[in-house]
Each structure stands twice: as structure tokens, then as C-alpha cells.
Amino acid sequence: MDSYVHGYQEREAERLGDQANTLSGLLHHDTRYPAGSKVLEAGCGVGAQTIILARNSPGASITSVDISPDSLGKARAAVESEGIANVTFRLANIFNLPFANESFDHVFLCFVLEHLRELERALQELRRVLKSGGSITVITDRPISTQRAWRRGRPSSASSSSRSAREGIR
Prior knowledge:
The protein has 170 residues and is of the alpha/beta class. The protein has a single domain (10-152), classed as Vaccinia Virus protein VP39 (Rossmann fold, 3-Layer(aba) Sandwich). 35% of the residues lie in helices and 19% in strands. The protein contains five helices and five strands; from the N terminus they run αβαβαββαβα. The protein has helices at residues 10-28, 48-56, 69-81, 119-129, 147-153, and strands at residues 38-42, 61-66, 87-91, 104-110, 130-139. It has a five-stranded parallel β-sheet with strand order 3-2-1-4-5. Helix 2 links the parallel strand 1 (38-42) and strand 2. Helix 1 (10-28) packs parallel to helix 2 and helix 4 (119-129) packs across helix 5 (147-153). The chain starts with 9 loop residues before the first helix and ends in a 17-residue tail after the last helix. 37% of the residues are buried.
């Protein structure tokens, strides 16, 4: 497992929570998923964004994954302390997700891609689990060219018209 660039100490968990709360209005003013939709949050970390997603989309079923068991434990505790019930957590690697093709209506990533060495590989895997006609929301603090990876990522049986994004994947 690659180490998270900022580390996994308690202070980092606090920083991520502060960041999510401070930027909530800017980043999530239009992040809402319809009731009944299945959402994958890839790289949920300590759950700072998870809480906002779940509150904004109470009728959606959110599956939040991360590669760090410690971060997942913190995310689970944070969600439980808020009384949120529409989130499930799963230990998973973004490069090898344990889901069938086209399992999710929407994919959400926030401040994840900039920490990955193999960006194309991650996007291809995310695209694999996204349903045709679904959307992907990518929030990042850096310009990342994703167009080539996105076009190559869809399994041949699915339509390439399914992409939609806030940033980068057009």
C-alpha cells in the first residue's frame, strides 16, 4: 500500500474535517444524488466528505471505500456519531474494486486523484464500475488531464456517452 502523502495521524483527520466543513458550500452546493441511486465514494479517508454526501443525498445508497483500515474506522465512527444510516464502508483498493461492472449510478472522488501514481489505471477501474449513463464527480486541487484515460476505460459493451463530470473528465 502506498502511504498517504499527509500521513494518517489524528491531526491529519482533523485537518480533513476542517477542510470539508470550510469548503462544503463551494464544493458541494450541487452534489446531490436522487433517491434510490447507488453512489460509490472512492477514497473516503476519514469520512469528512462522506458526511456531507450522505446529508445532501439522504435517499441515495452510498458505498464508501478506502485502502486504509484505520481511516475507514474513523469514517465509520464519524458517520455513526452523526446518526447517518445511508452509508456502508468497505476496505478496497481503487485499482481493483470488488464490484461488478456497472454497479453504480454515480462515482464521487474528492481530493483523491492527486495522490495516485497511476491515474489512468484508477480512472479505468472507476469507469468499469459506473453504469452507462451514470456520472462521475471529480474534485481536485490540481489540474489533471483525464480525458484519454476516460475514453479508454469503459468496457467495450458499454456506451461512451455516459461521462459527465464537474471537472476534468469531459
